Amino acid sequence: GVALVARAKDRAEQRIIGRVFLLLGTLLLPLNPWFWLQSGLIEDRGNAWIVTLVTFAVSTAIAFGLGDRIFVVLSYAFAMATGWLLTYKLSGGAPAGAYALSIVGVSLVYVVGEWAVSRARPDDEKWVGLAEVMFWCGHIGLAFTVIFYSAIAWFVPGELLAAFHHFTGENQTPLVLTSVPALAAVGYYWSAWRQKQQAWTFVGAAVTAWSVTEWLLSQHVRPGSWLIAAAVVAAVFHVVGRLLRSRDEFGPALESSGRAFAWIGFACVVIACFGYAAFDQPVRAATAAGALLLAVTFAVDAVLERTGPPSFAATSIVWLLIGWAAHELGASWTVTS
User: Fold this and answer.
1) pLDDT tens profile 158-169
2) CA torsion, points 221, 224, 227, 231, in degrees to nearest 10?
3) What is the pTM of this model?
């Protein structure tokens, strides 16, 4: 196959035949050890990862040696298989979460590897398009992992999950549920820097917030802690966005994300106050602290941007807190009297 492709030059038929030989040979390569195992020629010692590692090396060599994009996809597939099998070998049958971290790790290598490949031989015609395929292979893996290895899987139809019964967000450890979207967010922020596109920053911000959500869900925290988390996420996004305002791919997107989470927190404050006024539900100290932090975030945004809505939100939260405190003090004074 290599000889046919190398000698094809402008002959399309010979090149196609050579690529078919290469593709079949690469796909059949892992079957040889399987036949040896079934015939009793070798003993199964759990080293199947070596086979997939060799196949990965062959696919990568063909991809970059002949400039064939399909073999970049094959190298990614065999790299993931190697990660899974090696994880199983080292852990003796780890839970599904360990394989999720393996997929994220391999995917991040391909996302970041796009930068290295594009800089290695920018003028080599054979390597044109290979970096882009690596980039998208990595992102497919990141998206797959975030969906099927996190609590997002709870919202996926059961019929679809039945096809991927090993990939589920149930019974995962808090470390996995938090780490998977956090590591994926690193890949999205990296892509925003590489592609100079705000869309990747928005995705990274959403996945970062989802990582925080996963941790809160795993800890079974009270509603007030959710409000504090929303306020902290909004403040961090807003501060980082201000610091990176000169970078078009980061600054505006992070500031917008911070404002979005701040308004989500404001809606939660309104709901909490309505519950307190209509149903006499207690407002805990954590809820008041989160509301106060939101008020500060809105006030800073109003001062820096000189816009009305943040000022309105900050003033409303302050008055709501004053009203709640006055009511509590009045009730305490009545009880004491």
Assistant:
1) 544 444 545 555
2) -100
3) 0.81
